[in-house]
Design a protein that fits this description.
With 240 residues, the protein is α+β, with helices and mostly antiparallel strands. The chain folds into two domains: 105 residues; 109 residues, Immunoglobulin-like (Sandwich), CATH 2.60.40.10. The protein contains four helices and eight strands; from the N terminus they run H-H-H-H-E-E-E-E-E-E-E-E. Strands 3, 4, 5, 7 and 8 form a five-stranded antiparallel sheet that branches. Strands 1-2-6 form a three-stranded antiparallel sheet, with no helix packed on it. Helix 2 runs antiparallel to helix 3, helix 2 runs parallel beside helix 4 and helix 3 runs antiparallel to helix 4. The longest helix has 33 residues. The protein is flat and about 55 Å long. It starts with a helix and ends with a strand. The N terminus is likely disordered. InterPro entries: DUF6776. Keywords: Coiled coil, Membrane, Transmembrane, Transmembrane helix. Pfam families: DUF6776.
């Protein structure tokens, strides 16, 4: 008895138990912040596209600070989840949801960094020769057999941006099917919904959608083209 309850008794660590639902609420709150920041970046990008030097520097400084703050919040949330791994009182399903939300936060943080880099490149192009570009082309399976999702960012860089671009996006999809190479060009000539590939912008415009390939076909590369009056003004290719 003396050895169990006396001075020589083993030490017991007492840890504060944080209910899982508070952890979930914290994750949801931070996730909401990420979407708010993403919307703010879009607005900031439109301001940056005006290329007021002083305003651009202020916007970029503020954006860097927000990205740094967002990284700190993500780190705190990951530490909170990791600390709960040893706490058997947290429901397994709730912990998995937290981990999923942390992953979403990290992905969103990556997109914020990409947006920051892109807007910085827009600011650096001030006063240079004008031109059109396609940036950040991404193509990935969409969870349905044969269906792929694509996204890109079309932009006007350098020069004066007082003219509106009106044209369309064209996709050139290279395939492997039955050991042979094949090609698809979208939109097809007889596509009744070809207007969904139309695009209009003055500074920049995000563009995304899905396409379907034949059963058994494997996409090897996709080229996105910016077409105006039958002429290709810009392009970008991604290899899968």
């Amino acid at each position: 008895m003396r050895s169990r309850f006396g001075i020589s008794a083993p030490k017991v660590a007492v840890r504060t138990h944080i209910p899982w639902y508070w952890r979930a609420l914290a994750a949801i709150a931070v996730l909401s912040i990420s979407f708010a920041i993403a919307g703010w970046i879009y607005d900031a990008g439109r301001k940056i596209s005006g290329f007021n030097r002083l305003e651009t520097e202020l916007e970029l400084t503020s954006l860097r600070e927000r990205v740094e703050e967002f990284q700190k919040e993500t780190t705190k949330l990951r530490a909170l989840v990791n600390s709960g791994e040893s706490n058997v009182q947290i429901e397994r399903t709730a912990q998995q949801q937290l981990m999923s939300q942390v992953k979403s936060l990290e992905q969103e943080n990556g997109r914020l960094k990409e947006d920051l880099a892109f807007f910085e490149s827009l600011a650096a192009a001030e006063g240079k020769e004008s031109g059109l570009t396609i940036n950040r082309l991404q193509v990935e399976p969409n969870g349905i057999p044969g269906q792929y999702r694509y996204r890109m960012l079309a932009a006007a860089q350098g020069g004066k941006k007082d003219r509106e671009f009106r044209g369309n996006i064209q996709l050139v999809i290279n395939l492997q099917q039955g050991g042979k190479s094949a090609m698809m060009i979208l939109p097809e000539q007889n596509d009744s919904a070809r207007q969904r590939f139309n695009i209009t912008f003055k500074h920049f415009q995000r563009f995304d959608g899905t396409f379907q390939v034949p059963s058994g076909a494997r996409v090897t590369s996709v080229e996105a083209r910016l077409i105006q009056e039958g002429l290709m003004r810009a392009s970008q290719t991604v290899t899968l």
